[in-house]
Design brief:
The chain has 109 residues and is of the alpha+beta class. The protein is built from 2 helices and 7 strands; from the N terminus they run H-E-E-E-E-E-E-E-H. It has a single domain, classed as Thrombin, subunit H (Beta Barrel). Strands 2-3-4-7-6-5 form a 6-stranded antiparallel beta barrel. The longest helix is centred in the C-terminal third of the chain and has 13 residues.
């Protein structure tokens, strides 16, 4: 990376928080869930380390486990780093689940 890459402003709308949250991803058309853990999360997405990554644009259902709380959302792969992980945008989340996620993020900030 050259010095100009380090000086670019942050483009994210929401701050990321380091957090290991258990989750299940169920890609559209798949009957088996992929169980993984987040490395970081924000109000609208998360990064998941996994050795077998999903293609950009893949859609899925997502279940996040925050303590005993089960948060359900739809998701879409927005970044892919082969043999390392995927960035998942969280979409289709109920207002109640979004509020629970926001409260959790406040506790780890």
């Amino acid at each position: 990376m050259d010095s100009s890459e380090w000086s670019q402003p942050e483009r994210r709308r929401y701050p990321r928080r380091k957090a290991a949250i258990q989750l299940e991803l169920r890609p559209k058309g798949s009957t088996s869930p992929i169980r993984a853990e987040t490395t970081d999360i924000c109000a609208i997405g998360c990064y998941v380390e996994m050795s077998i990554t999903l293609e950009i644009g893949s859609e899925m259902s997502v279940v996040l486990w925050i303590g005993d709380e089960k948060l359900i959302a739809e998701g879409k792969v927005i970044t892919r780093h082969p043999q390392f992980g995927n960035g998942i945008e969280l979409t289709g989340m109920s207002e109640e689940s979004r509020n629970k996620l926001a409260r959790y993020l406040e506790t780890i900030s």
